Amino acid sequence: MAKVVRLRKQRKEWSKKAARAVSRGIDNLAELEQLEQKEREAEAALQAAITQSAEGSSEVVPASLESVDYLGMLSMDPELARSLGFDGVFPPAPLSS
Is residue 89 a part of any domain in this protein? Predict the structure, then answer.
Protein backbone atom coordinates (compact mmCIF):
# COMPACT_ATOMS: atom_id res chain seq x y z
CA MET A 1 0.00 0.00 0.00
CA ALA A 2 2.84 2.41 0.84
CA LYS A 3 4.32 1.78 -2.60
CA VAL A 4 1.03 2.70 -4.28
CA VAL A 5 0.83 5.93 -2.28
CA ARG A 6 4.43 6.78 -3.20
CA LEU A 7 3.82 6.10 -6.89
CA ARG A 8 0.68 8.25 -6.89
CA LYS A 9 2.61 11.06 -5.25
CA GLN A 10 5.37 10.75 -7.87
CA ARG A 11 2.83 10.79 -10.69
CA LYS A 12 1.21 13.90 -9.22
CA GLU A 13 4.60 15.67 -8.98
CA TRP A 14 5.46 14.72 -12.59
CA SER A 15 2.11 16.11 -13.72
CA LYS A 16 2.77 19.40 -11.92
CA LYS A 17 6.26 19.59 -13.41
CA ALA A 18 4.95 18.89 -16.91
CA ALA A 19 2.29 21.60 -16.47
CA ARG A 20 4.98 24.11 -15.41
CA ALA A 21 7.04 23.20 -18.46
CA VAL A 22 4.09 23.61 -20.82
CA SER A 23 3.11 26.94 -19.25
CA ARG A 24 6.63 28.22 -19.96
CA GLY A 25 6.67 26.90 -23.49
CA ILE A 26 9.27 24.25 -22.69
CA ASP A 27 8.89 20.77 -24.12
CA ASN A 28 11.79 19.19 -22.24
CA LEU A 29 11.75 18.49 -18.49
CA ALA A 30 15.56 18.62 -18.33
CA GLU A 31 15.43 22.16 -19.70
CA LEU A 32 12.78 23.03 -17.09
CA GLU A 33 15.05 21.67 -14.34
CA GLN A 34 17.95 23.82 -15.61
CA LEU A 35 15.77 26.93 -15.76
CA GLU A 36 14.36 26.35 -12.28
CA GLN A 37 17.88 25.74 -10.92
CA LYS A 38 19.05 29.06 -12.40
CA GLU A 39 16.03 30.78 -10.85
CA ARG A 40 16.77 29.25 -7.44
CA GLU A 41 20.42 30.34 -7.67
CA ALA A 42 19.44 33.85 -8.74
CA GLU A 43 16.92 34.11 -5.91
CA ALA A 44 19.49 32.87 -3.38
CA ALA A 45 22.08 35.35 -4.68
CA LEU A 46 19.53 38.15 -4.55
CA GLN A 47 18.55 37.26 -0.99
CA ALA A 48 22.23 37.13 0.00
CA ALA A 49 22.79 40.57 -1.51
CA ILE A 50 19.73 41.95 0.28
CA THR A 51 20.91 40.45 3.56
CA GLN A 52 24.39 41.91 3.05
CA SER A 53 23.05 45.37 2.31
CA ALA A 54 20.70 45.16 5.29
CA GLU A 55 23.68 44.38 7.51
CA GLY A 56 25.41 47.51 6.27
CA SER A 57 28.07 45.67 4.32
CA SER A 58 30.11 47.84 1.98
CA GLU A 59 30.93 44.96 -0.36
CA VAL A 60 30.22 45.35 -4.06
CA VAL A 61 27.47 43.22 -5.61
CA PRO A 62 29.09 40.15 -7.18
CA ALA A 63 29.34 40.14 -10.97
CA SER A 64 27.29 36.94 -11.02
CA LEU A 65 24.26 38.97 -9.92
CA GLU A 66 24.80 41.50 -12.68
CA SER A 67 24.87 38.83 -15.39
CA VAL A 68 21.46 37.36 -14.53
CA ASP A 69 18.61 38.48 -16.76
CA TYR A 70 16.09 39.15 -13.99
CA LEU A 71 13.56 40.86 -16.26
CA GLY A 72 13.73 37.94 -18.67
CA MET A 73 13.10 35.53 -15.82
CA LEU A 74 10.19 37.60 -14.53
CA SER A 75 8.62 37.81 -17.97
CA MET A 76 8.97 34.04 -18.43
CA ASP A 77 7.47 33.24 -15.05
CA PRO A 78 4.62 35.54 -13.98
CA GLU A 79 4.23 33.55 -10.76
CA LEU A 80 7.85 34.31 -9.80
CA ALA A 81 7.28 37.98 -10.60
CA ARG A 82 4.21 38.11 -8.36
CA SER A 83 5.99 36.27 -5.54
CA LEU A 84 8.75 38.90 -5.64
CA GLY A 85 6.22 41.73 -5.63
CA PHE A 86 6.97 42.84 -9.19
CA ASP A 87 3.92 44.27 -10.92
CA GLY A 88 5.58 45.25 -14.19
CA VAL A 89 6.18 48.87 -13.19
CA PHE A 90 9.61 50.06 -12.14
CA PRO A 91 9.70 52.23 -9.02
CA PRO A 92 10.94 55.79 -9.50
CA ALA A 93 14.62 56.43 -8.87
CA PRO A 94 15.29 57.91 -5.44
CA LEU A 95 16.13 61.60 -5.38
CA SER A 96 19.63 62.36 -4.18
CA SER A 97 19.85 64.86 -1.37
Answer: no
Say how far apart CA 37 and CA 75 lie, in whole Å.
17
Q: Containing domain of residue 59, as a range?
A: 8-83
Task: State the Cα–Cα distance between residues 79 and 87, nearest whole angstrom.
Answer: 11
Q: Within the chain, where are the H helices?
A: 2-23, 29-54, 63-66, 70-76, 78-83
Q: What angle do CA 8, 12, 18 make, to 5 degrees?
A: 140
Res 65 pLDDT > 60: no
Q: Does 93 fall in a domain?
A: no
Q: Stretch 60-83: mean pLDDT, rounded?
A: 62
pTM summary value: 0.45
